[in-house]
Amino acid sequence: MVFSHDRHPDGDPGYDAPLDVAARQARAWLSGIRERPIPPRIGSDEVKDRLGRSLPESGEPAADVIERLAEGVEPGLIATGSPRFYGWVIGGTQPVALAADWLVSAWDQNTGLRTITPGAVAVEELAGEWLVDLLGLPADSEVGFTTGATTAQFSCMAAARDEVLRRAGWDVETAGLAGGPAIRFIVGAERHGTVDLAGRYLGLGSPTVVASDEQGCIRVDALRQELASGSGPAIVLLQAGNIHSGAFDDFAAAVAVAHEAGAWVHVDGAFGLWAAASPSLRHLVTGMAGADSWSTDAHKTLSVPYDCGIAIVRDGRAMHRALSVQASYLQATRFGAEPHEKVPELSRRARGIPTWAVLRSLGRTGVARLVDGLADAARGIADGVGRLPGVEVLNDVVFTQVCIALDDDRATAALSERLWSDGEVLAMTSRWRDRAVVRFSVSNWGTDASQVSRTVAAVARALDEVRSTG
Ligand SMILES: *Cc1c(COP(=O)(O)O)cnc(C)c1O
């Protein structure tokens, strides 16, 4: 009998040919990444033209599809893996993490349940324990691997919402939000936009915003005042690493003030949490471990491929109540929490495995060196670029972020455009403290002293061109 999908009657499943093309194309991309122009050369429309727009009536061999994909898309890709890429907060990929990620795809383990894949769950649990240790957080915290810091934040705040309402005598898991006590959701003026999004997902509405200081840190006096002005369940969002200044909230003071008022404290540390892994930068996060939950990314500082965020919650039971799936076919084992009790998803890939691979490869001292290297590079850029005529460094460079500006917004925007078209360095335009800025976010593990020199030289060149064309 022949089934209609029987393409390989000789029994060959056909993995080799497309994987060979993928490996060759991946190597070509990776070997060119340090020298190719960083920005994409064409837009999405042209990429669609190159790929062919209409759904083919009949198919083509898998290897040809992969060849077409790689050749068609390449000019529309951005070289985020370049050591001179400083756009947004986007990290590169360590070789060991990429290789582990390939295995994750090949193994294709549904990592929602321990019974399905004890192997993948074991790797993720080890990675979780190591992370908590490395970041100096309470040892029995629960760790979930999410798609990014946004969903990690959502996961932590779901636990927060459950717990602060439970303390107020309201079981949100059964009763829902309507008719229950209002939650005061308090943030600093310079929180990341995804904090508001997590609040929206959870039905908390817009946050109450308290003032930040000139580096973007929440003002603890303003937080105290806000907390004293009301009562009832509250969630306070603090920040490790402001995206413009890199600054860290005063955790010791802010956590104490928030806990005095009975609030749950969550720390958004998408990239800044990693300061805790460095003995020389750890002072920036003093008091942070006193919070109730923390979210971060592995796909930024730790340099694993997209996508991997990390949700860490001190009170694991609150996390399980908020996120676990209840179903007769999902019997818990006697081995502890199930993966699906810690993240929004049930079925998902084993996205924590590349994190394990990087941690195993770098070790504790290697992670510290990685984080120190990013901060060193940021200081190097601030020193070098800050010395160029007419350039002002606007922030105190305490971590990985550098914001520069020229005398007026128009010139700053022109500098940014010039850098983009030159392609040697990519830094993004933003607005901070009511000024146009060019922001360097050092997030790539390959940004060493020589790359910093090239960066400063490229900015000097672009600056000359901006000046000479008026
Ligand atoms: C990047 C970032 C986020 C969001 O993380 P995603 O991984 O993009 O979901 C949240 N907060 C801060 C401070 C960030 O830098």
* Structural Rg: 24 Å
Helix count equals 14
* Structure summary, number of beta strands: 11
Proper CATH architecture of the largest domain: 3-Layer(aba) Sandwich
- How many strands, which pairing sense, and closed or not: the largest β-sheet? 7 strands, mixed
Corresponding CATH superfamily of the largest domain:
Type I PLP-dependent aspartate aminotransferase-like (Major domain)
Which small compounds were modeled alongside the protein? pyridoxal-5'-phosphate
User: Class by helix and strand content?
Assistant: alpha/beta
Q: Overall pLDDT, averaged?
A: 95
Global shape: globular
Order of helices and strands: HHHHHEHHEHEHEHEEEHHEEHEEH
Report the portion of residues in β strands.
Answer: 5-15%
What CATH calls the topology of the largest domain is Aspartate Aminotransferase, domain 2
Whole-number count of domains: 3
CATH class categorisation of the largest domain = Alpha Beta
Helix content: 40-55%
**Terminal residue distance:** 76 Å
Features:
about 475 residues, alpha/beta, Aspartate Aminotransferase, domain 2, Aspartate Aminotransferase, domain 1, seven-stranded mixed sheet, four-stranded antiparallel sheet, 11 strands, about 40% helix, about 10% strand, binds pyridoxal-5'-phosphate, pyridoxal phosphate binding, pyridoxal phosphate
